[in-house]
Amino acid sequence: MAKFKDYLTASFRQIREDRAEGIAEDTEIEYRRDIEDRLRRIRQYDRQRDNLILDLCPSNITSTQVVPGDFDAAKFKEKDIQIGIDRRNDLIILEIVVDRYESLFGAYPEADKIKELIPNWTSKIK
User: Fold this and answer.
1) d(CA 91, CA 119)
2) Is the pLDDT of residue 123 over 70?
């Protein structure tokens, strides 16, 4: 939080220290929430994709949930692609938000959660 607060106090000398602290804290919370929300959504996309496939499988040997004649491959493909696009967009935004978080507030404290979804991600904070 120090770097962001320093920007505030350097840019707005008239802002008192306690006001700068509050602004910095509120901003850090917003960044953290955004990161947490994107991590949750990305995991949901993975579950949605898994569920697309599971919905094709009958729940037991005698059940036929999907009748081959009723299956619409084009709709399946479109839904699958849309989930992939949404997931990819959130991954891109996540990387940007984490990068900004780290440049403004320091190392993200739960970097292991990011590494689970983006294995090749590395913190820019040394």
Assistant:
1) 12
2) yes
Going 80 to 81 to 84 to 86, the CA torsion angle's sign is negative
Q: What pLDDT is recorded for position 20?
A: 78
Both structure tokens of 55: 């919905």
CB 75 within 8 Å of CB 90: no
pTM of the model: 0.75
| Cβ pair 31, 101 in contact under 8 A | yes
Dihedral sign for Cα atoms in the order 85, 87, 89, 92: negative
The closest of 97, 104, 121 to 38, measured between CA atoms, is: 97
Return d(Cα 94, Cα 85) in angstroms, integer: 14
% of the chain exceeding 90 in pLDDT: 46
Average the pLDDT over 5-27 and give the result. 75
Amino acid, single-letter form, for residue 12: F
Cβ–Cβ under 8 Å, residues 59 and 85: no
